[in-house]
Amino acid sequence: MISILRHLRSLSRSERGNVALLSALAMPVVLGSLGLGAEVASWYGGKRSLQNAADSAAVAAATNASGSYVDEARAVAARYGFQQGVDGVSITAVDNGPLWSRR
Q1: Domain that holds residue 41
Q2: Which one, of 103, 86, 93, lies nearest residue 59 by Cα?
Q3: Is residue 62 part of a domain?
Q4: Residue pair 38/25 in contact by the 8 Å Cβ criterion
Q5: Domain contains 68
Q6: What is the pLDDT along the chain (103 residues), one digit of tens a residue?
Q7: How many structural domains comprise the chain?
Q8: Rounded CA separation 1/52 (Å)
């Protein structure tokens, strides 16, 4: 028992292997942070892609000369890879008229 305590004391005073120990303790935190950063970047990219498709579809439908707003919005959204009824995608375009006439 005494030899074990003596060995532990000498081990606690030794500086050999400190870098390996600290690296082993820090590695899960570093890898977890990298993984979280990659996941957040993926979420942001997906959200940005959806917003770009929605904005383009809205502008195209609003500037469309014919009365088929929904068809124009669906066509533009399809160019961005979002098709009606595929993977839970629902594309809805509504013509509410100009903003200044709603008062």
Answers
A1: 17-95
A2: 93
A3: yes
A4: no
A5: yes
A6: 778 888 778 777 777 777 888 889 999 999 999 999 999 999 999 889 888 888 888 788 777 766 677 778 888 888 888 887 787 877 777 766 665 655 5
A7: 1
A8: 70
